[in-house]
Every structure is written in structure tokens, then in C-alpha cells.
Amino acid sequence: MEDFNTYQTPLSSRYASKEMAHLFSAENRFYTWRKLWLNLAIAEKQLGLPISDEAIKEMDAHLHLDAKQFEIAALEEKKRRHDVMAHVHTFGQVAPAAAGIIHLGATSCYVTDNADLIFIRTALTLLLSKLAVVISRFANFARQYRDLPTLGFTHFQPAQLTTVGKRCTLWLQELLWDLRNIKRARDDVGFRGVKGTTGTQASFLALFDGDHDKVEELDKLVTELSGFSYAYPVTSQTYSRKIDIDVLSPLASFGATAHKIATDLRLLANLKEVEEPFESTQIGSSAMAYKRNPMRSERICSLSRHLMVIQQNALMTASVQWFERTLDDSANRRITLPEAFLTADIVLTTLQNVSEGLVVYPKVIARRIAQELPFMATENVIMALVKKGGDRQEAHEQIRVLSHEAAHQVKGLGLENDLIERIRATAYFDPIKPELDSLLDPKSFIGRAPEQVDSFLKNWVEPALSDKEFEDVLKKGGKAELNV
After folding, report:
1. CB 347 within 8 A of CB 258
2. Is 292 contained in some domain?
3. Tens-place pLDDT, residues 123-161
4. Is the pLDDT of residue 280 over 60?
5. Is 459 among the domain residues?
């Protein structure tokens, strides 16, 4: 009941996946701190410090916190006003043999920063798998509608025809760039390592009696035990907050992609050409029972805007880190990092759900094409007349007059476009009347759109999804279910 009496972030309580919400949970955070302390003790023991086997054993046996330990830690933090030291003392109560060596030589950022880097790398991996699935779903959609003509829009004004599948490849290309950018950021994440209070490793040099080689080996061992291939060569008390910029930048960029896709879908829903999933019991409006609001796409846009602006926090925080560090990054990052990954996770889940249930209305699409195509076909009509021996300038004038008359029917009287009927009724066009139907075939106006779809899927999408990292998640084939 307490959960209903205090504010809960909707990112975790309403939208996010269990995996991402757990990753940034208190339980996982403090488990990771304890794991880092264990790794440090193992490496220090291996390099000759007097740490007992019993201490290592007790630490390893108590990595997970129970409810009582959370209560103890909360009381300790209230007393000490220091979260890391509160957990050092709490860990020491369940691992008494290790109480005197937990956190030996380390600064608080040994656990806080290294843990953040672990969370960041894991979160990026979760996002990559989800993004691969979204790309796969949109690729299926593009393939299915590779050659379905649809009216293209520039400036949201009628333009030349494209296909539903070709339009989807525009979304896919940006998603592929996001996959590349997020993977680059993930693969570039290093470990802060064992660097001491201002990054000089002075405390560890004292522990090992001035043996520089052992200090370097300690940094390497802890890095490897923590699952990283390298540690940043130099740090201050913290890892550079510029790393947060590098990580959040591709997430913000993905937010822009998702917003663009969802906006296109919202516009298509208004045109009644393509709709997102709408469940049989779903209510579009509390007042207007007929409505089918694109609420999923609207949610994507809403959260994507939030995702895009979070990066600004990282930029501003990195810019004001005085000398070896200042603590005005701490409270900000406790909010910024989890929110960025939770938001990206929610956007991806929602985007997958949308991509798996898109509904296309070919007859509506065809009707809109029929309203605009006669105007677009005028050049084809002129060229056909010239091929029959007609005069290009005279043909142009004839078409111009009829086009303006038809435009008046549409804009002035609200009637259908009757340009083709006017052409059929005009004797001047007798030579090409048998060809009118073929001249107006929408598929003759889509250029190489179907072939572009085929080539793009084969040469770009399929290679990207063939990465072994995505093999298992793509095989599962499950659908994304939304909590609300």
C-alpha cells in the first residue's frame, strides 16, 4: 500500500521492462558494489596483501542484500551521511571476517563509478537486442508492401508516388544508424578501475610498499574480474563525465528517429492509410466513442522528446567538473542515467508493439492516389501526344486549361478530380485515349522503389541482423506486450 502513498516514477512503475527496471534497482546496485569489493579483495589477496580465505568466502556468500540489510544500510546512511560508507559497514556485519579489509585503499567512486559503467554497458546491450527486433519487424513490413504505390509527400503536400515499403526503408535506414551508433558506444565503454582518490593510485602504492608493478597489476586484475577488457588509462576521482555524453548521445539520436517514425504514423492515421494496432476493447476517447487515437505513437513521441533532452544534462554536468571532481554531478546522474535507459527501453518496446500490428488500408491509399494522379500524369499525356505527332506547346496549353477546370471542381466545389473525364471528352486527345489507362497506372509512377526495397533489405538490413549477438533474440519471435 505504501507504493500508492508516495510518488513512483512512471518510467519504472508504468512502462519499463522488468529487465531494465531491475538493472537500475537498489538491489542490483548494492549487489554490484559488493561484487566490486569482492573483486578488489580477491586481487589484493592474489598480489600478497594479508586477506584471509574466510574473508573472501564470507563476502562471496553475502553479495545479495535482504530486507534487514537494507534497513541497516538506511540507518547507517542517516547517521553517517555517506551512502558508500553505510554499505561498507552493512556488508561488514554479514561478512565479519572481511569487515577490516572491505574497501581497502579505495575511494567511493571505485564502487559508484565502476558500477555505473557496468550498468551502462549492460543497458546498452539490452537496448541493442530490442532495436534489432524492431528493425526486423519493420523489415518484414517493408518487404510485404515493397510495391504498393502510395502518394508521396514533400512539405506534407502531394508529391510523386512512392511505395509503402519504400517509405518504411527511410525509417529502417535511420534505425540501422542508431544500431551502429549504440553498438559503438557500448563497445567503447571501459572500466574506471582502481585509481584512488584523485586518480593517482597513491593509496594502493602505499599498500604495496611502493611497488608500481603491483599497483598496475591490481588495476588490470580488478578490471578483468569485473568483465572489462580495458580500464581508462587516466582518471580523476571519477571517470570522465564526457563518457556519459558519448553514451547518451546515440540514445538521444535514436529518440529523434523514433519521434520521426511515430509522427509519420500519426499523420498516416489521420489520412486513414496506415494505423497502429487498436485492440477490440480499446477506448480512443472518454467522450467520443468513435475515435481511434494513435496513443502508442503519441507515447513514443512524448517519451522520445524526453530522451532527446536528457543528453543536455550530461553535457552540462561534464562541463562543470572542477579539477579532479566536484560532487554536483552525483544527484543529477542518479536521475539522468537511469531515466535515459528506462526511457529508451520503453520507446523501443512501444515501437516494436506498433511495428508488429500495423494495419494498411490499400483502398484508401488508392483513392487518394486517384485524386492526385491525374495532375501528375499530365506530363505523360503530353509526351504521348507528341509521340503521336502532336505539338508539345499546344498539348501543354490544352492540359493547362483542363487542369485548372478540374482543380476548381476539387478546391472550389469540393467535388472529385475529373481531369481524366475532361480529357476523354476532348477531341484533341483522341490519338492517345486508348492509352489513358496505362498512362494512369500507379505502378508506372513509382520508379525503382520496389527494387530499392529489395536491394536495401538484402545489402544493409540482413547483414546488420546477421550479427551473432542478435541471433537468439531474433529466433524467439515473441511479440511486445505493453503494460498499459
Report:
1. yes
2. no
3. 999 999 999 999 999 999 999 999 999 999 999 998 899
4. no
5. no
Within a domain: 153 = no
Q: Specify the CATH number for the domain of residue 2.
A: 1.10.275.10
The residue from 401, 423, 439 where one domain ends is 439
Give the end-to-end CA distance of the chain in Å, rounded to a whole number.
20
155 labelled catalytic: yes
DSSP bridge partners of 149: 163
Q: pLDDT at residue 401 above 50?
A: yes
Which pLDDT tens digit goes with each residue over 317-341? Answer: 999 999 999 999 999 999 999 999 9
pLDDT interval class at 308 (50, 70, 90): very high
The residue from 206, 237, 268 where one domain ends is 237
d(CA 249, CA 344): 12
Residue 395: give the domain boundaries: 378-439
- Residue 286 confidence (pLDDT): 46
Q: Where are the alpha helices (DSSP H) in 328-411?
A: 330-355, 362-376, 378-387, 392-407
- Model confidence at 399, pLDDT cuts 50, 70, 90, reads confident
Helix, strand, or coil here: 222? helix
Residue in 25, 52, 285, 444 annotated catalytic = 285
Contact 369, 442 (CB under 8 A): yes
pTM across the whole model: 0.90
In a domain, 9, yes or no: yes
Domains contained in the chain, number: 2
pLDDT number for residue 12: 84
Q: Which of 155, 229, 280, 286 is catalytic?
A: 155
The neighbouring-strand residues paired with 425 are: none
| C-alpha pair distances (Å), 274 with each of 224, 246, 267, 278, 309 | 50, 36, 9, 12, 29
Please give the grid coordinates belonging to residue 449: 522503389
